[in-house]
């Protein structure tokens, strides 16, 4: 065979092999995607089956509060939050009505060693609790180790991330209801990649998942005398996912005739939170997972920084309360762990007490925080040696509890 013909034949063979390899890659990827679809459909069925089955804390003989310090500055600020809980719940703890359960092992070292977002024995201990007060945990950049928060929210079905922000002198009294188990986070560590070619991640919005976060927001609004609901999406671009989120929120709103519902796109809403002529009009926000993650950090910064904000992760059977900031590993590396601000986790502890049926004790902590952080400011934390330690701040706060 002439050399020219051999060359043409070889090119045809090479093209065929290349096409077969590409088809094999696509086949593998479509198989992965099919598995994801089936898992999400199974999750939808479970949500539909468990709808409306909520834990009644008043009926429990003992309420078990899990204390999970986490890593980085987590143990430092958790220690101070526990001091506050032990003070305000001293009678209930002594009577055996409240149990504080220390849960260790949710550290980055342990999680990396086992390559599990939450080690099995730690998850088992957490499931034995009714609520969890959790310190921040480190999530490595890249790799395949999932965020511990994302794993806990999914495993315990903590679908409502609730974050209040208050700046009374500016007329700001906001509360954010961020859907906590879906969006980009639901399968964020399960994307697909063809090395050197492309990467694809997935976003998931479900009908029952959106209905229950909308109802949680609207129920809160009715119970607390709120009238305005802001639904925040990017439905003009993400037409299937965000489009359905907006549609479902409007359908649920028809059951709440006293509420005023407004649609916003996430980009303009981030700007409007800074608009002093408009932002005092906002009250209750409901939004998908990723947008809620971003905009609540912005809102916390307006309040005084992410170190001032607590966060509730609420499901029908479990609830987890935490600070909204990260583990601040650099502070530990610099030897400044003792100077970490515990205010955010103490705020989260107050939210937890309100959730389990102690609103007066929660209010007492919130009032003390207001005095210490906003009014008197006699003990100030800077994160450095020129400021107070977390323990000194907590001593100050405890003196204001009365």
TrEMBL record:
<comment type="similarity">
    <text>Belongs to the isocitrate and isopropylmalate dehydrogenases family.</text>
</comment>
<dbReference type="GO" id="GO:0006102">
    <property type="term" value="P:isocitrate metabolic process"/>
</dbReference>
<protein>
    <submittedName>
        <fullName>Isocitrate dehydrogenase (NAD+)</fullName>
    </submittedName>
</protein>
<dbReference type="InterPro" id="IPR024084">
    <property type="entry name" value="IsoPropMal-DH-like_dom"/>
</dbReference>
<dbReference type="GO" id="GO:0006099">
    <property type="term" value="P:tricarboxylic acid cycle"/>
</dbReference>
<dbReference type="GO" id="GO:0004449">
    <property type="term" value="F:isocitrate dehydrogenase (NAD+) activity"/>
</dbReference>
<dbReference type="Pfam" id="PF00180">
    <property type="entry name" value="Iso_dh"/>
</dbReference>
<feature type="domain" description="Isopropylmalate dehydrogenase-like">
    <location>
        <begin position="64"/>
        <end position="397"/>
    </location>
</feature>
